[in-house]
Amino acid sequence: MRYVFVLSGVKPYSDTIDIIPSVLRQTKDVLLSLKGMFGKQTKELSKENSKSNAFSITDEEEKKAKIKVTSFSSSVEALVNRYRSHEMRLWIDSGGYSFIKGDIDPECIGVMAYMYHFFVEKSSSDIYRIFTLDLPFNEKFKSYNNKQTIGAANRKITEKTMRFLEAHPSLCEKFIFAMHAKTVDLYDIWLDIYKEYQVGQCIQRRAIGGLVGVRKDTSNVMSPFIVAAYKALIDFLNAKNEDDKKVFSLHFLGINLIQDRFAIAVLEDLFSSYDRLGVSDIDFSYDTSGFGEKARKGNKKLPVFVFGKRIGLYYVPGCEYIDPSSVGHLYDEKTIEIAMSSLKKFNQGERVDATAIFEPINVHSQMEIDKILSRAVKKYDIGAAFFHIHTPRQFEKYVDDFLACISHGGILFPERSSDPDVLIESNLFNNNTFRVCSKKNLLYMYNVHKWFVKSRAPYSAINQKSRQFVRDWAADKDANSHRVKKN
Fold it and tell me: Minimal CA–CA distance to 429: which of 414, 443, 417?
């Protein structure tokens, strides 16, 4: 499981400090949204076309769109060149979230799709991965939000993308197909699109979209991607590009909570155990802008896990307790002086203007947490339980024991334990919300896993399983929203 850092924009640095090289010490993968390219001008480009076909585009609109894309593409080239020596891998988010938030009028879809494909053509050499353009709903322009309109728009976009890839087959390896399963209607729309345009024959990588914001007031509800992950795996196994079946690649868009990342770690381990499928490797990844935002805005109360060169991994309840000398290795040479100076000021209760210096610390911490999650899955061999426990009742008992074990709730003073993992795991797992959510996740995974390994034709039944999960997740949400229990 790898983390993809979300850039704040095409120029993610200030004139006084650039923390990106320090972030790239933690992860080489960074994500840039195209929202800056679309902006408000996309809507302005289509004003004269607002009452016509949303997919039509006039010569004047095309001319203005090309200017806008060319300028943004030049900025992307400059960004890649700036960090080339740091081996940065640039992922491109299609900017569909701007459409979801209502920043882009549905009447502008034609211009938006044109700009998207023109950008990919111009900047393909600078792109490591790019997500397909997906427009599942619009929070502002409600008339768009019906199955027929959403389906028509996204089918048209997918048709353009597939034609684009037919003309540029070398780019198939870079594209990631984003599917949706938040509602049954959205699931059916993307299911039809996948089938109609035979997406699996070209696109090798998959993502689960629609996850940004879905966790608001639902942190103790099941993770919303459990069955969608199985759907992606089954689609991958049934795709016709046989030469590309060695690595199953799945990205989770907009994931933040630890319970969701733990679920990803369990799924990653579980999928790796399906030896009969002929998959040699599992490549799971996720992104969130939350790590950087929390570091900048909430640094005073930010608990972190820090890997020190001398004492190994340790837990710090807040950045004000960090010894600046213990995190110097997180920063590049050009940033370390201002970072150390700012941390010393913060420790002394003084104001820190360059709050960006906290971002590498939190990114480092969250990536260490991911290692802890994956290590816990393997350390307690949870994958074996899925295969060797034969009844749901027995598995539920195992889950209760497992969660009690990793949270170390029975230890009165974990900070005094001779095993350093006890304190680390208790600080991470001894949380009621984590335990409630993780139990639901594991029990649901168990049922889907048992069905998957026993099914002779999972491809024909996965759609029914997926629709049922959407209903079950909605029921869990309705029953538990706004009832999140805190320690």
Answer: 414
